[in-house]
Amino acid sequence: MKRRRLTHAVLATLLLLGGLATAGTIPAAATGPTSPTGSTPPTGSTSLATSAKPASDGLLAAMQRDLGLTRHQAEARVAAERAAAVLDPKVRRTAGEAYAGSWFDAARGRLTVALTPDASTATRRAIRAAGAEIRTAAHTARELDAAKARIDRLSAPSGVSGWHVDPVAGTVVVDIVREDRSDNDVRRFVSRARETGPVTVRTVSAAPRTFAAGTVGGDPYYTGNVRCSIGFSVYGGFVTAGHCGSPGAGVSGWDGSYIGTFQGSSFPDNDYAWVSVGSGWWTVPVVLGWGTVPDQLVRGSAVAPVGSSVCRSGSTSHWHCGTVLATNETVNYSQGAVHQLTKTSVCAEPGDSGGSFITGDQAQGVTSGGWGNCTSGGETWFQPVNEILGRYGLTLHTYTG
């Protein structure tokens, strides 16, 4: 308890030095539906605000540790990923019907765009001029998304862990648990999936699970005997994972005091929720570093392309980094399928559910589930934060200094 109180005291000092008039603990007490200036903020947040230092020293150090980079390489990668995140929606519009997917190529430090052979010379020239690499693909993104949507309508057995569109491979990838690959139900599912379009089958070592946990003292918030982690502050509360609580459920904080109430929650199908806060708690645009790295300010929620680095903060395993592996993946948990998740190579453990995924200073999503742990490694999925903001009409609390 003393450790947590010290952490919160240091955070408050950090935010005051940063010029926030309402600095405090995270998630802290509700500021209400208006911004600090008193005006009503717009719904959602997708800005990519310019800052002299988009990544803290600690975040860069975590990228060095988890991604095997030098300090210079980590700084260069953050800058390149920011540029790719800005460029990605522009080249999608330019590509039009010929668009077949895009991803960040870490080796080249550039966005790569897949186009079908019928893309015009003018389209290719415009995309190259914008700074992106081009690859040729057999199937459009729309065709691959349609195939995935058809698979979404199938009933998946437990031996199928999930499926997603892989823009690099140009197919829909279906993941099956290695020990269940000979199961008759799995074989039938794979056979039906192949009928929907271009499908590649891969094996994974374990089935995904959510990362909620039983009560452990000194962690961010509790709902009954479940412990989860806070995702991101929004005006009036914070967002987190849907499997952590149902609408109307009360939430207590790290010190046992009442924080607020789940106002909305969806799981399965989705895995998101938001909690209103009050009773002396207020919100700040910060992701906790847990003493591993300095706390990270949040400046927006621009989506990081596949291949980008991403880091996660959670109340059990604290701070870890990895890479975005896939977007719009359907994950087949034991409780039911959850759609539109983002797959990463970041590890997580029970109690990390709901916690923050961030690239540089841009919020990405809240931890849903995965397989493995932070000793042997694994993979973790998150629910994109912009979808949560749009669903509930929330505004991300961002730092604009």
| Overall pLDDT confidence | 84
Number of strands: 23
**What CATH architecture of the domain at 1-68 and 207-401 would you give?**
Beta Barrel
Mind telling me the CATH class of the domain at 1-68 and 207-401? Mainly Beta
The helix fraction, in percent, is 10-25%
Largest beta sheet, briefly? 8 strands, antiparallel
Structure overview:
By secondary structure, the chain is an alpha+beta fold. The chain has a domain at 1-68 and 207-401: Trypsin-like serine proteases (Thrombin, subunit H, Beta Barrel), CATH 2.40.10.10. 23% of the residues lie in helices and 33% in strands. It contains 7 helices and 23 strands. It has helices at 2-17, 57-67, 71-95, 121-130, 141-152, 184-194, 385-392; strands spanning 99-105, 110-115, 133-136, 160-166, 171-177, 199-204, 209-210, 213-214, 221-223, 226-228, 232-234, 237-240, 250-253, 258-266, 272-277, 286-287, 296-297, 309-314, 318-333, 336-344, 356-359, 362-373, 377-384. Strands 8-10-9-13-14-15-12-11 form an 8-stranded antiparallel sheet, with helices on one face. Mean pLDDT is 84; it is low at 1-51 and 213-218.
